[in-house]
Specification:
512 residues, Beta-Lactamase, 5-stranded antiparallel sheet, 13 helices, 19 strands, 20% strand, Ccz1, CCZ1/INTU/HSP4 first Longin domain-containing protein, CCZ1/INTU/HSP4_longin_1
Length: 512
């Protein structure tokens, strides 16, 4: 999905977070606003936007108590809703602009909201728990503002904000991309994981191993794996460190095909000195110089010993001493120290429970020393084996196909390389985006069916440029495919999908 610039900051895109449990008394309405972008809009406009959103949520709950409003399509705008936590809502409002190719998939926008919230949970904990600790919500607003603005910086291109568009239809957020490894390499990886876990001295430690931007192994729960994998690809992998950007977005890979479609100019908006809403006159300029900003660019680097270092976490305001980063696990709600070792294309992340480290930073340094002594040679060996079996950025390219394969049960995805996807024409991508929208609707309907069974789907359509655009959904797996050089007949396209399924999907989408 992509967005293009528009003339008006206030109309291109608006993003807000509000709490329905706050600001219910007359004169206290501003208290419900936790975040609003653009921050320079008058409070009256912010309240108008949130009041409309609140009204839509309340109205739709009358008819659907279990699932309130998800999207409202107005004449000029799309309103996309996501209930991040009970009664805490995130809403993005995007202006429709056909001339600027402002064509997006609603579920794609909602997954952006889900992703930024999941990352916030990992570093700060739940918004509700923060509000309970500080009812005035000043620091909560400050943390949200800093975090979300740093997150949105990944969508900047030429000072224009670009959210996902139809050009991102062959990618899937909230999934991980796995590296396929042979038996011998897998044994070496398992041995490495066991050695590092023994060095941590805690049975509750966890690890995540990546090669390039692909996951090799994890001991975390699926949700925690997705969160840490997402952050690693955004900020920690060799590509993110060297290029200052991630491989998540086709837009940030400099593809000429990635045209902007909606979104206001950010320019100075990325500066944290700009005012934002806060009750009692709180502003974004209030003492942010020492705030923890895990999504800020260029704050991680590789140390001489191979461990990644950062000054994002500091011992105390004004201190020059950096401390080990920490995150919250979603499954256990346990706070963990985050340590990352890197050798060439290999990134090994291990997590140690904060409660198990007695001597604080000295204890972490002791663990790192043990890892260097007992596991560094194993990491070199694993990196060498994985490199030998790695086919490069186009390793998962299949000649003649542009595809996305999603395993919803295991939260995995695999797709054609971004460089290959960029060769598709606009007509093909538009047709694919519309097809995915249809699948999203059918999946949403099936989710609320009384029978509780997953719905199998097969859709095959012809784009304006005569490309075949195909979707198959069965038993928790989804396949999306574009065949631009296919024969005229549907039989040819069906046969192509059959061959792909048999060779790369273990026959999951075969008709037999």
């Amino acid at each position: 999905m992509g967005l293009s610039s528009v003339a008006s900051n206030s109309e291109g895109m608006q993003l807000c977070i509000f709490d329905l449990r706050r600001g219910q008394n007359e004169g206290q309405e501003l208290d419900k606003i936790l975040f609003f972008y653009p921050a320079d809009l008058p409070f009256s406009t912010q309240l108008s936007v949130i009041g409309l959103s609140e009204g839509l949520i309340t109205f739709t709950r009358i008819f659907s108590p279990e699932a309130a409003c998800e999207v409202i399509e107005a004449e000029r705008h799309s309103h996309v809703f996501f209930e991040a936590e009970p009664d805490i809502w995130m809403v993005v409002i995007v202006e429709k602009n056909k001339e600027a190719e402002a064509i997006w998939r609603v579920e794609g926008l909602r997954k952006v909201l889900k992703e930024v919230h999941s990352l916030f949970l990992m570093f700060h904990g739940s918004i509700r728990s923060l509000l309970e600790k500080e009812p005035a919500a000043g620091s909560v607003r400050s943390q949200l503002y800093i975090f979300i603005m740093d997150y949105l910086s990944d969508f900047l291109s030429s000072k224009k904000l670009q959210l996902p568009s139809f050009r991102d239809s062959l990618k899937e957020r909230a999934t991980v991309q796995m590296l396929t490894v042979g038996r011998e390499a897998a044994i070496e990886v398992q041995s490495l994981v066991r050695v590092v876990e023994s060095c941590t001295g805690s049975q509750s430690s966890h690890s995540l191993l990546l090669f390039q931007d692909l996951l090799v192994s994890t001991t975390l729960s699926p949700d925690d794996t997705i969160n840490l994998f997402t952050y690693a690809v955004l900020r920690l992998t060799p590509r993110a460190l060297s290029a200052g950007l991630s491989s998540w977005s086709y837009l940030r890979k400099g593809s000429a095909a990635s045209t902007a479609v909606t979104g206001p100019t950010m320019g100075s908006t990325t500066s944290l000195s700009e005012p934002f809403h806060g009750s009692r006159g709180t502003s974004a300029g209030d003492d942010h110089s020492h705030a923890v900003r895990p999504l800020q660019h260029d704050r991680w680097s590789k140390g001489r010993d191979g461990f990644l270092i950062t000054d994002i976490w500091q011992a105390e305001p004004g201190s020059l001493v950096s401390v080990t980063p920490s995150i919250w696990l979603q499954q256990t709600e346990e706070k963990m120290y985050l340590c990352a070792y890197q050798h060439k294309s290999l990134t090994f992340i291990f997590l140690i429970p904060v409660s198990s480290v007695i001597n604080g930073e000295q204890g972490i340094l002791a663990v790192k020393q043990l890892v260097l002594e007992h596991a560094s040679l194993k990491m070199l060996k694993v990196e060498e084996k994985l490199s030998k079996g790695w086919g490069g950025e186009n390793a998962y390219h299949v000649s003649g196909y542009r595809y996305l394969l999603v395993d919803g049960d295991r939260n995995l995805s695999r797709a054609s390389p971004p460089g290959k996807v960029a060769t598709l024409t606009k007509d093909s991508l538009l047709a694919l985006s519309k097809l995915r929208e249809e699948v999203d609707i059918e999946k949403s309907r099936a989710k609320w069916d009384n029978d509780g069974h997953e719905k199998d789907l097969e859709i095959c359509t012809r784009a304006r440029n005569n490309a075949w655009v195909i979707s198959q959904v069965t038993r928790g797996k989804e396949l999306y495919m574009v065949l631009e050089n296919a024969n005229e007949t549907l039989l040819y396209a069906s046969d192509a999908v059959q061959k792909f399924s048999n060779r790369y999907c273990n026959g999951a989408f075969s008709l037999d």
